[in-house]
Amino acid sequence: MKISELMAQSISEFATPAKAFSPTDRVSEVIGFMRETRSYEAVVEEGERTSIVTVRDLLDLSNLDTRLSKLMHQVPRLNRQNTVSDAASLMLEYRTRSMPIYHGGNLDGQVTSPAVVGRMMEANVPVKVSSIMTKEPVTIDSTATLASARELMRRKKVDQVPILSGGRLTGIATSDSIVFNLAPKADREVKGGRQQGRFDEPLADYGTGNLLTNEITDSLMDVYGNMKKEGANYSLIMNTGEVQGIVTYRDFMKLLERRSAKPQLPMYIVGLPDDPFSAAAVREKFTDAVQLIRKGFPEVSEARAIIK
Question: What whole-number distance in Å separates Cα of residue 211 and Cα of residue 213?
């Protein structure tokens, strides 16, 4: 299968079960669900709107009794007619690893990036690791604390931070390992008690679990196979013992993103639909229209639209 053929496939072929939470549910319920299902996000339903809470959102956690309404952010609802390319574009825009699928107003499942990338890897993808990896990923020294790593992830909007000691890779801090293992947990032996997360612990003493790496000469299939085998969402790309980059499922999904040429001029749209997916479709159509106009009027320097 060619990448172009996969991009045009219906997401219904990749649908897997999904669970919906309520905005009034507590964060503790979602953490337990994510840990048990190895999920990166949870779907939250509120009337006709759907939101998501991600593991990175939970890095802001200060109290397990926090309601999901404090952390969730709205995302579009896909349907069975949407394509893999639609899903890939939205996952990249909203920085998620899955998107909810709806049918008749009801949650019908979800499409996940690992499932899509797995299908993509069944084909021969003539792309080098170096062309999709995020080069020179942000790193942190082993003398720093977990609190510093957590703040770095929040500020840089990343989920993996390689740990270095004297310039040598010694481990990795991930958002899920921090949230699942070190965030405050309920102490069942003490009624009403809480165990405090060890956020003041130095990274040198932090158990990071499996440290996943690949060489820069490895194929995309090698990288994907390594990630799938270890159940990881990343692989650090090495060259002569030094970190050259990092590959995540997000990087794989860039190969499936719907691309359209954008005019290099300021564009302003007033009155976009509230639904993010509809708004994205309007922006794309407006961009295409401006591109067409500029062919006949190249002197155009600005484009504005008002939706009534």
Answer: 7
pLDDT digits (tens, 9 = 90+) for 25-69: 999 999 999 999 999 999 999 999 999 999 999 997 878 899 999
CA–CA distance, 170 with 211 (Å, rounded to integer)? 8
User: 290-299: per-residue pLDDT in tens?
Assistant: 777 765 566 6
- Strand partners of residue 306: 270
Half-sphere exposure of 276 (CA within 13 A, CB side): 17
Handedness of CA 256, 258, 261, 263 (dihedral sign): negative
**DSSP readout, the chain?**
--HHHHHTSBGGGG-B---EE-TTSBHHHHHHHHHHHT-SEEEEEETTEEEEEETTGGGG---TT-BGGGT-EE-PPEETT-BHHHHHHHHHHHT-SEEEEEETTEEEEEEEHHHHHHHHTTS-----HHHHSEES---EETTSBHHHHHHHHHHHT-SEEEEEETTEEEEEEEHHHIIIIIS-EE-TTSTT-EEPP-TTSBGGG-------EEETTS-HHHHHHHHHHHT-SEEEEEETTEEEEEEEHHHHHGGG-------SS-EEEES--SSHHHHHHHHHHHHHHHHHHHHH-TT---EEEE--
pLDDT in tens, 92-133: 989 999 999 999 899 999 999 999 999 999 987 889 999 999
Q: Residue 42 in contact with residue 34, Cβ under 8 Å?
A: yes
